[in-house]
Amino acid sequence: MSEVWIIIPGWAKFQHYPSNRGIAWVKDYLDQLDRDEYMALTFAQRGLLKDLRKLYARRRGVLSGDTASLSRALSERVLSTQLEALNHAGYIEFSASKPLAHFDNPASTEEEVLRTSSKKGGARAKATRARTAPEKNSAPDRDAALAEAFDIAAGWNGPQDTLAFEDALDQVARRHHTKIPALDRDRLWDIAFGNHQ
């Protein structure tokens, strides 16, 4: 059986990078309490999500989805049904490929590359920067995608057919490397087509 890896979508927004050290803490957001997907999770699933984020940070983004391994690391039994519920709500994703470890501090790594490479000359500095600096828009950002999708829905002047609107939502999701959950899509439809009285 192949190993499954856990990915936290939009991970960049949960990070705090103190200078010259690893991740000391993980940010949390109050708006989760306003999300139906979050509130539909059991109290235990919400607690597991918080601990998975901490463990994901500690392991620099390389987190096995093996429940036995997670149970040992968190000193509590982790069930595959709990992970599936978090995945269904959009808070974690599963990957068959082992992810690369995140830098402890991508900002300082990029600054160091720029500082040292600027002494070596223009062409070489640009090549080093492009090869070493993390890509700014490569991480999934579900919140940004939802904000853009809600803006599109609020100002929808396009055709009143399903395909054009779905296509617009799919383009937003692709741009942000994420998915727009069905519950949010239903709300977006209501906004775009005037069913939000």
Mean pLDDT: 75
User: What assembly state would you assign to the polypeptide chains in this entry?
Assistant: single chain
What overall form do the CA principal axes indicate? elongated
Count of the domains: 3
Strand order of the largest sheet: 2-1-3
- Specify Rg, calculated over alpha carbons: 20 Å
Total E-strand runs: 3
Give your account of this protein's structure:
The structure is a single chain. By secondary structure, this protein is mainly alpha-helical. It folds into 3 domains: about 5-95, no CATH class; about 105-135, no CATH class; about 140-190, no CATH class. About 50% of the residues lie in helices and about 5% in strands. The protein is built from 9 helices and 3 strands; from the N terminus they run βααβααβααααα. The protein has a 3-stranded antiparallel beta sheet, with helices on one face. Helix 5 (about 105-115) packs antiparallel against helix 6 (about 120-130), helix 7 (about 140-155) runs antiparallel to helix 8 (about 160-175) and helix 7 packs parallel to helix 9. It is elongated and about 55 Å long. The model is unreliable at about 105-140 (pLDDT under 50).
